[in-house]
From TrEMBL:
InterPro entries: GH, GH_1_N_CS, Glyco_hydro_1, Glyco_hydro_1_AS. One of its GO terms (cellular component) is cytosol. The keyword Hydrolase applies. GO terms for biological process: carbohydrate catabolic process. This is Glycoside hydrolase family 1 protein. Transmembrane segments: none annotated. Belongs to the glycosyl hydrolase 1 family. It comes from Streptococcus cuniculipharyngis. Gene3D superfamilies: Glycosidases (3.20.20.80). The keyword Hydrolase applies. Keywords: Glycosidase, Hydrolase. PROSITE patterns: GLYCOSYL_HYDROL_F1_1, GLYCOSYL_HYDROL_F1_2.
Length: 478
């Protein structure tokens, strides 16, 4: 092929989260977030694990406190993104920069001014911001004093926050996401939902009631955003994970369907505005009774403009999972797929799964889609190159090329896709493990797991590769 299948207005870029790369965790009036007390990461590595280690106060071994210092280096980093040709840059606003405790009546002006500067710098290069309102960054006070999203009071606090940022940036930001990987609250309740109750003490009733509060808040944000600026494009963001049956046994097929439904629940409600019938049966059989406020049904009817998602891996499912090896590293469980290779962290690599996800979501909702996370975490080694230090990351190029070819296949299938942002265009601190050595970027950052390093930035081999992909609008993939 010599002609690209990507639309002329396709949004190429990269994605980040404030808590993993901003640093400056108490500068500019910022308060603490749940991430500041998760020095070992916030995601259980298997379904049977308990909560990750949560400290009372921030500790020196938490790399996220300094991140990669984007707070002070944003002009340098945005210039590098512009050099690659980014059309869009996904970032999150740290809720605790705007409302340090989360329940204040008035916002922190210094925090608002910081994001003004970032958005203005992006505009200088013609890069569209794609902003996540809540990316695993619940203010710590809301977790400690209210038990996070288990408490309905958070809807009002979130509403005040989103009204503030929507109004402030209504002429600077067009694309918004309400919650990052909203379905992850079932698997990482403290990191994702600020729920301080230990995992072993949480009932399904507690978790799904918290889910309901987040879904209502998300729909309310969509309504508010459209009221403030009808041109806003507001989407949900889910963790996409296609599942395959281990055998042709109908019971394995049923296990796949049940797993998929627990993921579809979140996008179904965001896209259709109501709870689907399959979850009502699950609630009944598990004695779960979701408490609805009188206004909740109407609020949920405010549906999103597009569906966005992260995609890193697929899983395999069986009705008897104990008969197989568990899927090490798969955040949402499952068993090992013998047909797939895995990353250094046990995440199974499945480019075709991305095409399946795109088709499944588009066939199900007929809404535009946006891939807002996809990438390979690897142990990069800095070496001397002809133009200075670099990383020969052909493995990353291979991973991304294979996934993007499958994106092209989905476009030819008829899927409407607005854009693609790789996870971590610049190395940042891992959310799941709080390591620097789990690197995703096109740009190497000289910082290490022990906290040492100069923070200097170096272009990897993949930097020029992605630059060429964007410049050719995907034609160089073929």
């Amino acid at each position: 092929m010599t002609k690209t299948v990507f639309p002329d207005n396709f949004l190429w870029g990269g994605a980040t989260a404030a808590n993993q790369f901003e640093g400056a965790y108490q500068e500019g009036g910022k308060g603490l977030s749940v991430q500041d007390v998760l020095p070992k990461g916030g995601v259980p590595v298997s379904a049977g694990d308990k909560n990750p280690r949560i400290t009372e106060e921030p500790t020196a071994d938490n790399l996220k406190l300094d991140g990669i210092d984007f707070y002070h280096r944003y002009k340098e980093d945005i210039a590098l993104f512009a050099e690659m040709g980014f059309k869009v840059f996904r970032l999150s606003i740290a809720w605790s920069r705007i409302f340090p405790k989360g329940d204040e009546l008035e916002p922190n002006e210094a925090g608002l001014a910081f994001y003004d500067q970032v958005f203005d710098e992006l505009a200088k290069y013609g890069i569209e911001p794609l902003v996540t309102l809540s990316h695993y960054e619940t203010p710590l006070h809301l977790a400690r004093a209210y038990n996070g999203w288990a408490n309905r009071d958070l809807i009002a606090f979130y509403e005040r926050y989103v009204r503030t940022v929507f109004s402030r940036y209504k002429d600077k930001v067009k694309y918004w996401l309400t919650f990052n990987e909203v379905n992850s609250v079932l698997h990482a309740p403290f990191m994702s939902g600020g729920i301080a109750t230990p995992v072993e003490d949480l009932s399904q009733q507690d978790l799904y009631q918290a889910v309901h509060h987040e879904l209502v808040a998300s729909a309310l944000a969509t309504k508010i955003g459209h009221d403030i600026n009808p041109d806003f494009k507001i989407g949900c963001m889910v963790l996409a994970m296609p599942a395959y049956a281990m055998t042709a046994n109908p019971l394995d097929q049923l296990a796949v369907r049940q797993f998929a439904n627990h993921n579809y629940l979140f996008s179904d409600i965001h896209a259709r505005g109501k709870y689907p019938n399959y979850i009502k049966r699950f609630f009944k059989e598990n004695e779960i009774e979701i408490v609805f406020a009188p206004e909740d049904e109407e609020i949920l009817s405010h549906t999103v403009d597009f569906i966005s998602f992260s995609y890193y891996m697929s899983v395999a499912q069986a009705h008897n999972p104990e008969a197989y090896n568990s899927g090490r590293g798969n955040i949402m469980g499952g068993v090992t797929n013998p047909y797939l290779e895995a990353s250094d962290w046990g995440w199974q690599i499945d480019p075709v799964g991305l095409r399946l996800v795109l088709n499944d979501f588009y066939d199900r909702y007929q809404l535009p889609l946006f891939i807002v996370e996809n990438g390979l975490g690897a142990k990069d080694v800095l070496v001397d190159g002809p133009n200075g230090p670099t990383v020969e990351d052909d493995y990353r190029i291979d991973y991304l090329q294979k996934h993007l070819v499958q994106v092209g296949e989905a476009l030819q299938d008829g899927v409407e896709l607005w854009g693609y942002t790789t996870w971590g265009p610049i190395d940042l601190v891992s959310a799941s493990t709080a390591e620097m050595s789990k690197r995703y970027g096109f740009i190497y950052v000289d910082r290490h797991d022990d906290g040492t390093g100069s923070m200097a930035r170096y272009k990897k081999k993949s930097f020029d590769w992605y630059k060429e992909v964007i410049a050719t609008n995907g034609a160089s993939l073929y």
